[in-house]
Specification:
Number of helices: 9
Strand content: 15-25%
Structural class: alpha+beta
Distance between the termini: 146 Å
Shape: elongated
């Protein structure tokens, strides 16, 4: 179709289709005609990167997991080392006071919560009063008599020899006639009122003591004066007990009152000169009564409840 000069050519018909004999032209990307066109370096890099993207994601996740696991292990190791070093430092700084050992080997003060918590240990609990003249006894004679009584108390209640059954060191401190009379007490077990013998199967960790000593001049019916010394003491023995047993259950105690006497040596036979034990009485707490009747001072086995602390 031709147009006249000066006229506008007609717009192509948007709905026109190819005629039957006319070849349809497809774009090159549909026909693959441009497949032979070589790719640039940038296009090849993008293609490879796109194909490997999934594998890279998996590798990244694995590497991240390994880093996290390794970091946790290192942090845990550092924390454990710090805890151990801190514990060791605290242990090195601590210096607890010695205390009785239980059967499991751990230190424990059995006297906590008992009257004995404030008692002195051993001989330190035997405190003598000042010695003053008691006519006809001089202050020096009174002091000497008090010293003899203190030595007798130590041998009777604290010394290992008496605790294991050897009474001779104690008896040697008495006047010969008094020694002979008291030796019979160790045959009938009446010595328990003034001396302590412990069963060989028992183990005492510590003994605590509190009491008082007093003295006065006594005149007998025949007019003979003597210096009478009265001792009143509580002796508390801490026995080795199982860790599961309450501490106070391991404490056996005895309260005694003993009267001692010394005469002036003038006009006395040699066998009567020295210290005499005149009388003794006692009461116990938390002691095995059947063993005490046999002459052995042993803590009562813990059975639970207040019944275990009945006196004999």
């Amino acid at each position: 179709m031709s147009t006249e000069p000066g006229t506008t050519p007609p717009e192509p018909d948007p709905y026109a289709v190819a005629s039957r004999g006319e070849e349809i032209q497809l774009p090159s990307w549909m026909t693959g005609a441009d497949a032979d066109v070589p790719l640039t370096r940038a296009e090849r890099f993008r293609m490879v990167w796109s194909r490997q993207r999934g594998k890279r994601h998996v590798a990244f996740v694995v590497v991240l997991a390994l880093v996290l696991i390794g970091g946790t292990a290192v942090l845990g190791r550092v924390t454990v080392d710090r805890v151990r070093s801190g514990t060791a430092a605290a242990s090195a700084e601590a210096s607890p006071s010695p205390a009785p050992l239980s059967q499991v080997g751990e230190p424990r003060d059995l006297f906590v919560g008992t009257a004995g918590a404030d008692f002195a240990v051993g001989e330190a609990g035997i405190v003598l009063p000042p010695a003053t003249a008691q006519p006809p006894f001089t202050a020096r004679e009174v002091a000497a008599a008090l010293t003899q009584v203190r030595a007798a108390l130590v041998q009777a209640r604290l010394a290992l020899s008496m605790r294991v059954g050897d009474a001779e060191p104690f008896l040697a401190l008495l006047a010969p006639d008094s020694r002979t009379r008291l030796r019979r007490h160790f045959d009938d077990q009446s010595f328990v009122h003034y001396a302590t013998r412990i069963d060989s199967q028992a183990d005492v960790d510590e003994i605590r003591v509190r009491g008082e000593t007093s003295y006065e001049v006594f005149t007998a019916e025949d007019g003979e004066p003597s210096l009478r010394i009265t001792t009143k003491y509580v002796w508390m023995y801490a026995f080795d007990i199982p860790r599961t047993t309450p501490g106070p259950a391991g404490i056996a105690s005895i309260r005694d009152q003993v009267v001692w006497e010394i005469f002036q040596p003038e006009d006395l036979p040699a066998t009567q000169r020295g210290l005499w034990l005149i009388s003794a009485k006692s009461s116990t707490n938390n002691v095995n009564c059947s063993r005490l009747a046999e002459g052995f001072f042993v803590v009562e086995p813990w059975m639970g409840g207040p019944g275990s602390f009945k006196p004999c």
